Amino acid sequence: MRILYAEDNLQIRTITTERLIKDGFSVDSTKDGEQAMDYLNSTHYDLVILDIMMPKMNGLEVLSWLRKAEKDTPVIMLTAKDSIQDKIYGLDLGADDYVIKPFSYDELLARIKAILRRSFKPIQNSLQVGDLSLNRTTNEVMRQGQSIHLSKKEYSMLEYLMMHAGEVVSRESLERISTNFDYEGYSNVIDVYMRFLRRKIDDPFQTKLIHTVRGFGYVIKVE
Question: Which 8-state DSSP code applies to residue 39?
């Protein structure tokens, strides 16, 4: 399950993110509302956790945008505000739950699990492009019957490309799904990992699947 967690307090964000990952979730964490919107524009999430008091765009503004865009991703609002009016406003905007800070991690985890149980939708278990397959349950990647070992970053990039097979995926989108926004040092990381990925996915085989669209990004398809 993939979670987007938006919280401007670095200490709270770091600790909570680490505990969620330890409990088996895939987590993208971000420090403000604008970055949260960038993530939501480029990647599907099973759940979003939004702190209300964030810079650039607050959590309620992100929630409002999310619902106006007709995205039904479950949302937990996380805030120090505890008045009935604040809760009603957030729920009226389309929040699924409302957790007051300071919060118990165990309570947050219980709320997350409850929402995910209610909103669970079967996802496509296997992705296929030509003779390349990716099993999202076992994380196994195979081509022409050969198993291909990928690093976590390579796997994330390939999965996203295959989810959007035939569509041009921008470098920015790949940066967002493979790199946490807290890391600001990636200037050519996507180019480097794309070379790694091609060596494993394309170089040993006659038919090439990953193609560069100059000035835009990459596309995976059978030509």
Answer: H
